[in-house]
Write a structure and sequence with these properties.
- The chain is α/β, with parallel strands linked by helices.
- Helices cover 38% and strands 18% of the residues.
- Strands 2, 3, 4, 5, 6, 7, 8 and 9 form an 8-stranded mixed β-sheet that branches. Strands 13-14-12-15-16-11-17 form a 7-stranded parallel β-sheet, sandwiched between helices. A 6-stranded parallel β-sheet has the order 18-23-22-19-21-20, with helices on both faces.
- It binds adenosine-5'-diphosphate (ADP) and magnesium ion.
């Protein structure tokens, strides 16, 4: 008997090859299969009279096969099956390429439903390779709302559909009800079985909506419970008790006074570190708000108390940059600062590792290498990670598995709306740096269209002439022929710019390059050796180039607002007046009003709220940047209200049954426990 854990090979028609293709989509068990939700649906639920179908329209028709399907040889190796089908309104010529078996399946007089694209030439109508089902057979792909799935090589829609159908038949009865009855009733949500059946094979659009609502809620609810559970477990984590030092000793060493927000964040962290339980705190602040200083202050406090700190950056080049900034901030106190990155020689690494094991350093700055297995620390008191969204929740817990439980400070430059922060960082305490250091210049932002190109080029020439540097961001790496309007590709655009500006030095960096090459190009730009850097969004989390005074974003309508904000944060980091030009030829009112928000405000939190309002949370969950387990809600299109409700219900339930021990919560508990283990393999 099949159950939810049964391998997908169990399904008739799924052999080794197809199973492997399914595995690529993350589908291993029957449970995975039925949880693999359609990407979209095609409404084939109503039939159209043949004569009313428009040219190019995809329609379902119900017709009689009017003559005997015959095989026509067009040329060597190429045969067609042809016949005519009729209904009361008219007739259509039907042709199948490479599907000779159709000749044997259909006979004159059969009543058949076809779904396909109607083509009109004069008064003749034709359809090529329509899907069909004989009248009386069970409706699968015609006469109903049909699910369309994401595919991998070796799979087609029909295989997927049949596999899911069988999967549901085999185990829909066994689907556990993860939502407690009380929650389900209060939220007026349908039962699991109904939801899984109708998300794949909706009886009608009303049923689909009910299914969708329930499944989105369920996923966000399980996630909220899991994060709540992590938070609860953390309360029991014993942490080193660090006495609060006299912070003025540190602040006084700086060339500028800390902002109120920086003081507050440091103070909150010191409270945590003195409390006896281990800190897990997120410091969220816009680019340029001065998060590094917060980290430096805490590293200093740790060293005073006799403990070592580790600072982890997402890339080598950022590690280098932090190494030098932190070294100079801590220099007045003679702290010993080391570095550990993947590109160092074995000998260099060995030396640093020995120093770490012997506590001969006060701070080590590095990449993931800091937490590889062969590194051991003595007296590790604090772990700081920069740019949180590059690290998964699982990784955070892997870090803290090193030796005793150190305090953890996570820094993120991605302002996110409060509603999402609750979910994304549900297991962390949060400090928000909502104040910029004084004297920061606003980056003037303008949205323009192609007609502005010549002036833009003139502007670039002028700025570079003054000694400044320019970022140009494109949405993708290579030309993509599938898209209707050509988008600026980074490589192509680099060539164009080099032609426009033969006298300037133009370089290109994109995500498909090897990390080493990428770092080399970035480093050359940072050193002022190139004038214009064309990039894909790899620079989003990036390097400090105070001399860069202009950010140009091509096809700006393709980017999310928060992403544009991050990109804009790459300029205006030095003493120079800076600009951000958003180029877009999309003049739909929606695209215009989005870009207009960028012109109106530099406040990352406001921008993120707008972004969430305009796009819904699906986009946030869809991008894998946040480090949460893979979610399906992105496909289903969740809205903000459901997110809030799920969060509230999870909080309420956990208040009543913190460990989910009640028998009626057993199914939920199982889901919660599985959530973070399932995807853990993807992280290192
Ligand atoms: P973030 O990491 O938050 O993007 P950084 O820590 O890199 O920002 O700080 C950005 C710049 O602001 C740095 O050059 C830093 O020296 C400067 N800075 C930080 N705090 C202050 C402050 N209180 N007053 C003036 N300048 C500051
Ligand atoms: Mg930073």
């Amino acid at each position: 008997m099949a159950d939810l854990n049964t391998d997908v090979r169990y399904i008739k028609g799924i052999g080794e090859k197809k199973a492997q293709a399914l595995n690529k989509l993350g589908v291993f068990s029957l449970y995975d299969l039925v949880s693999f939700f359609p990407r979209k649906y095609e409404d084939r639920s109503s039939y159209k009279p043949i004569a009313l179908a428009l040219d190019g329209e995809s329609v379902c028709i119900r017709a009689l096969v009017a003559d005997t399907p015959r095989l026509v040889r067009v040329r060597r190796g190429m045969e067609l099956v042809k016949f005519r089908a009729v209904d009361e309104s008219g007739s259509v010529d039907i042709t199948y390429f490479n599907q000779n078996y159709v000749k044997d399946n259909l006979s004159r007089g059969d009543s058949v439903c076809f779904y396909g694209k109607m083509e009109l030439s004069g008064s003749r109508r034709s359809m090529v390779n329509p899907v069909y089902e004989k009248e009386g057979a069970e409706r699968g792909v015609t006469g109903r709302i049909v699910p369309i799935y994401r595919l991998a090589a070796g799979l087609n829609q029909r295989t997927m559909l049949q596999a899911v159908r069988q999967g549901l038949d085999a185990c829909v009865e066994k689907l556990p009800e993860a939502l407690p009855e009380s929650v389900r009733e209060r939220m007026q949500l349908v039962q699991a079985r109904y939801a899984y059946e109708n998300i794949h094979f909706p009886a009608d659009f009303g049923a689909l909506e009910l299914a969708r609502r329930r499944l989105i809620f369920e996923e966000l609810f399980v996630l909220s419970c899991a994060l709540g559970d992590m938070r609860r477990k953390r309360v029991n984590d014993n942490g080193l008790v660090i006495a609060r030092p006299e912070m003025e000793d540190f602040w006084g060493s700086l060339p500028f006074p800390p902002t109120g927000a920086q003081r507050r964040a440091v103070s909150q962290a010191l409270d945590d570190m003195g409390s006896g339980r281990a800190m897990s705190r997120l410091v969220q602040g816009d680019v340029g708000s001065g998060k590094t200083l917060v980290a430096a202050a805490l590293i200093w406090a740790m060293a005073r108390a006799g403990y070592l700190s580790a600072f982890m950056a997402p890339t080598e080049i950022l590690a280098e940059q932090h190494f030098s900034t932190l070294s100079s901030m801590l220099a007045p106190f003679s702290l010993r600062v080391g570095k550990l990155t993947g590109s160092m020689t074995a000998k260099e690494k060995r030396l640093v590792k020995a120093q770490l094991a012997a506590h001969e350093l006060d701070l080590v700055v590095g990449t993931h290498a800091l937490f590889s297995e062969d590194v051991s620390y003595s007296d590790l008191g604090l772990v700081v990670t920069d740019e949180q969204h590059r690290f998964g929740v699982e990784q955070r817990s892997a870090l803290i598995g090193k030796g005793q439980r150190p305090h953890v400070l996570v820094m993120s430059a991605t302002p996110i709306p409060r509603t999402l922060a609750l979910i994304l960082y549900g297991d962390l305490d949060v400090s928000i740096i909502d104040e910029m250091p004084p004297g920061r210049q606003k980056v003037d932002t303008f949205a323009v269209d192609e007609s502005y190109r010549a002036r833009l080029n003139g502007f670039i020439r002028k700025l570079v002439g003054e000694g400044r540097q320019v970022f140009v961001v494109c949405p993708m790496v290579e030309e993509n022929e599938e898209l209707p309007k050509p988008l600026k590709s980074a490589e192509e655009h680099t060539r164009e710019l080099q032609q426009t500006f033969p006298e300037l030095r133009v370089a290109c960096v994109h995500g498909k390059m090897k990390p080493k090459d990428k770092d080399a190009v970035m480093a050359a730009f940072a050193a002022g050796e190139t004038d214009i850097l064309v990039a894909t969004t790899v620079i989003e989390v990036g390097v400090d180039v105070p001399n860069a005074a202009l950010m140009v974003v091509e096809n700006a309508e393709r980017f999310g607002l928060s992403q544009l904000h991050q990109l804009r944060g790459r300029v205006g980091r030095g003493q120079f007046k800076s600009w951000c030009i958003l180029v877009s030829d999309n003049d739909s009112p929606e695209a215009r009003s989005r870009l207009d928000i960028m012109h109106q405000t530099n406040d990352g939190f406001r921008i993120s709220e707008e972004d969430l309002r305009l796009r819904g949370p699906g986009d946030f969950f869809g991008s894998r940047q946040h480090g949460l387990p893979e979610m399906h809600v992105a496909d289903l299109g969740a809205d903000v209200n459901v997110l809030q409700q799920a969060q509230e219900e999870a909080t309420r339930l956990l208040a009543a049954d913190p460990e989910l021990r009640a028998p009626e919560n057993a199914a939920l508990r199982e889901r919660v426990e599985k959530l973070f283990t399932k995807n853990a393999a993807g992280f290192n």
